Amino acid sequence: MADSLRRLASAGSCRLLQEKLESWSRDYEINSCDQNLNQCCELIEMNSVIQGQLFTILNETSREGGHYAGVETIKTRLLPWLGTWFSHATSGRLMDTGLSFNQGSIEKERQLRQLATSQTFQLEELQEELTSTRLELDRVHQDLKASRAQEEDSLRRLDRLNDYEQQIEMLRDELSILDAQKSVLQSRIAQSRSCSPGRNRSRSPSPLPLRSCSPGRARSTNASRRAFLVARFGDIYSQDRFDAERILRTYISDMEMVQRIIYTAAVESFQAAKMAYRQFKMRVRKTLSIGHSGPESLEDAVLDYIVHHEDLYDVQSSVNEVIRSMNINPKISFPPEFDFVVISSFIRELCRVAFSMQTLSPPLDTALGMDGELFSETKYHRSVDSDYAAALVAYHVWPALMENDVVIVKGEAVTKRGALWSHRSRSKSRSHSMSPLLSHLPRSRSPSPRRSGSPRR
Description:
A three-stranded antiparallel beta sheet has the order 1-4-5, with no helix packed on it. The protein has helices spanning about 1-10, 15-25, 35-65, 70-195, 195-200, 215-220, 220-250, 255-290, 300-310, 315-325, 345-355, 420-430, and strands at about 365, 380, 395-400, 400-405, 405-410, 410-415. By secondary structure, the protein is mainly α. Helix 7 packs antiparallel against helix 8 (about 255-290), helix 7 (about 220-250) packs antiparallel against helix 11 (about 345-355) and helix 8 packs across helix 10 (about 315-325).
């Protein structure tokens, strides 16, 4: 033990520790933080070395005194000091740990705050972009609405322009008619002044109102009248025909028979109108030939008169003739209680158009169609329920419009396989089973009193 104590005393560690402590105290204010910390750590290390040597001396001294020597001293002096030292050491570690934990929390909180600030900034930028995008979408939507409104306005203007053009064309036609009537009145005044009273008394009454018109008016308006009539014929096919179909379907369930009836009505209307036109033309020629004079030919005068006085055409007589012809037509059948007067307005319009088409040069007429004939692509369209591989026509839906044997408007037909055989079987069965209403009719096409024609309307 004396050797250990002698070495500790001769080493001068305590004096060196005191000197360093005094030197650190003098230089503390001028040292940097790292320098002061290094001085403190160095003193702690020197103190630890001295404490280690002292505990070695304590251990050797206690062994020299025996098993129980120095117990009271250790209990009263060493153990309380050790307890205090451990308590301070533990408290220091806890404080250091708490400080480290607080510093870590502060750092994390600072990072979280920075992250939240960054996210808030990004969110604000996104909101600004969203607001800008919404404003842009609103502007595009408004531009789209404005362009759509402008387009609708342009369409309305175009429709009004088309209406104006039609009205101008109608006004031109009316003006030409008025000019014709003016010329007629002037010619009648001139004729009345030049004719003697005796000659007027000797002339037989005219079968028609003697209203002439300016020469060549019919031929000068031939192109415009032809275009109008062709368009009207197309409208009847695309519009009036379906109205007539709807009326007929309330009485007749067979769609094929309904289409056959409408086709027959169209063909018979042209036949009746052509017959009425020939009779009307003969009457006009007979009337105008009595006092005809002028640079135009008699035929031109007759045509001008008919064109400008089509209101004298007795269309109801033609309608009655069409209904009489359809009542005895063997290709169509209908219930006994049915009357074709229900489609008289459809027949009337067809007769008017057909009559006006006879005033054209050349006149227009419907093509002759027969069931079982070879289908012609130049004359007909196929119906949607047709057999496109079939070559024969089963039945016709609408006649083609012809001008000098040239098709100008296609008709419509249904093609099916075995159309010729089907047509013969249908004709044979209908010839044996006629409608009860028509079974007593003679072959002279004289109608029964019930079907003598609808009243004039």
